Structures are given as C-alpha cells and as structure tokens.
Amino acid sequence: MTDGQIVKALAGFYFVDTGEAIYRCRARGIFKKDGVTPLVGDYVRITVQDEEEGVVDWISERRNAFIRPPVANVDIFVVTVAAAEPEPSLELTDRFLVTAEAADADACVCINKDDLSPMQAKRFAGVYAGIYPSVVMSAVTGEGVPELRRLVAGRSAAFAGASGVGKTSLIALLTGDVGLETGDVSAKTGRGRHTTRHVEIFKLADGTKVYDTPGFTSFEAAEAADLSDANPDALFPEFREYLGGCRFADCRHENEPDCAVRAALESGGVKQSRYASYLRLLEGLRDAAPYGR
Ligand code: GDP
Ligand code: ZN
Description:
Blueprint: E1 2-10, E2 13-17, E3 22-27, H1 29-33, E4 43-48, E5 53-59, E6 65-68, E7 71-72, E8 76-82, H2 90-102, E9 106-112, H3 118-128, E10 134-136, H4 145-152, E11 156-160, H5 167-175, H6 183-189, E12 200-203, E13 209-212, E14 220-221, H7 225-229, H8 240-243, H9 260-267, H10 272-288
Parallel strand pairs: 3-5, 8-9, 8-11, 9-10, 11-13
Antiparallel strand pairs: 1-2, 1-4, 2-3, 4-5, 6-7, 6-14, 12-13
The protein binds guanosine-5'-diphosphate and zinc ion.
C-alpha cells in the first residue's frame, strides 16, 4: 500500500503521484458500486502493480469536493477577473466567493489586465478591501505576480473566473509553462479552447499545487445541499460582525426593523454590491426551497 494524490484523471485512469513516481491507476470496483468517483485532488491509497500501474483502494476524507469541475481538496480559490476585456462582474465574483465560503475554502480576488484599465482595477479591488485578500496584476507586464505567488504559496489553489480573464496566462506564469494554450493561440487554430484538456494539478517548486481547470467558468459544490444548508448571511464574511446586532435573531436583513446589516449598509461597513449579491443568493435559495417561504 502506498499513499499519494490523484493529480490527473483521463479516460478512466487516475494518475496518482506518490512523491516518488506517478502511477496510472484504475479505481477499485467497489467505488462504482458505492457511487463514489475519485476526483483530482483526492488523497488516496493505492496498490502498486508494477512500475507504472496501480489500483486505487481507498480515498481519504475530503475537505471539499466539486462536480464541476470534478476536483477535491481545494484550499484557496483564486477568483479571477479582468479589469477590462471582458468587463469585470461583481455579481459573478460574489458567486464564486460564496461557493468558496460554502465549501470551506479560502478565497482571494485576482484582478488581471491592470495594463488595460488601472482605474477599473483599483475600483474593483476597493470593493473587496478588508474582506478578501486581493491582487491587482497583469500577465502581460508581470505586475503582481510575486503577490499572487505569496497568496497561494504552499497551498492547493484553484483558479475560477469567466473565460478570457487570463487564468491560463496566469497559471502559465506561475508554473513557467510556456506551452499552455491561451485564447490567442486557439483563435488561430479555430478550435474551441481547452476542449481536449483535462483537470490537472501542477506542482510548483515551493510546494504550491495549482489546479488547472480549463473550460470551467463556475465551480459547483458537490453537495447541492451545501448552499441551502448554510446560513446565507454567514457566506458574506463582512456581515459577521453585525449579525448579533439585529433585533431579530433570525433576521434575514431584508425589511426587518433594527437590522444591523442594513445599518452597516448605510454607514458603508457593507458595500452595496455585496448586499445586492446577498439578496440575490437569498432569492435563489428561496426559489430552490421546496415549499417556498
Ligand atoms: P482564460 O480564458 O481565463 O484562461 O484567459 P487566457 O489566459 O486564455 O487569456 C485570454 C486573453 O487575454 C489572451 O489573449 C491573453 O493573451 C490575454 N491576456 C491575459 N492576461 C492579460 C493581461 O494581463 N493583459 C492583457 N492586456 N491581456 C491579457
Ligand atoms: Zn438583520
């Protein structure tokens, strides 16, 4: 028996890195029977069969798991936007951040393409100041790359963000891999970007693990219940200090009297866009609830 981590999944095989070698493994039949799918990022125990092959026998309990993309054990989400091209979306950013909170992962906000619109980058960073660590950067000029490295150092980091914001470019900068295909290249070949690519973990020299999850613009937590079980207001870290101050213990911070969250909205302790995202989440969960509320 050998311990390792699944670093790539391809065509029914799981590539397990044991620290000494990478074994191409099949999963034991029992997993399928139990409805368990091994995920990239899973810590596993394998039986080595020969120099190259093995069998996944056991999967360690997961910190978190996602269906889309199929990965597990993410420490930190790097929620990435572009200062321009495409225009950054506060709404989409908040959706990723909420997913990260619900999945018990850390998050940071990465504002790329500062070279295109420094004003916009600064404004965007301002929204998250004091809530999430953020870095303003440019994959073109290299600005901010050391800060990004520091934010993810030694952790399992997954990039999330809309297509075209520069995720592949940033991962290529971190890994030093010039072979990663960015939007430019595929425009020439005319092929859909990343269509043939897979989820893979890249290890950096300092032990950081970068999950390359091309082609995914949203992370969907494995248990749909994850989000509906959570208190929506607990998914907005800057709300926390106010929650005890509402008149009603079960305050939803909508129209209730003496609501400390809405008071914080007035005084600037809570930002308008974040509160709007909170209301949208509340709405979404209500729609999903079986009997409404
Ligand atoms: P992804 O879809 O998020 O993986 O984005 P890509 O890494 O493929 O980048 C999309 C496009 O934006 C490509 O044409 C990149 O060359 C370009 N790009 C990436 N980062 C920057 C940046 O910091 N500044 C500018 N001006 N362009 C960038
Ligand atoms: Zn309230």
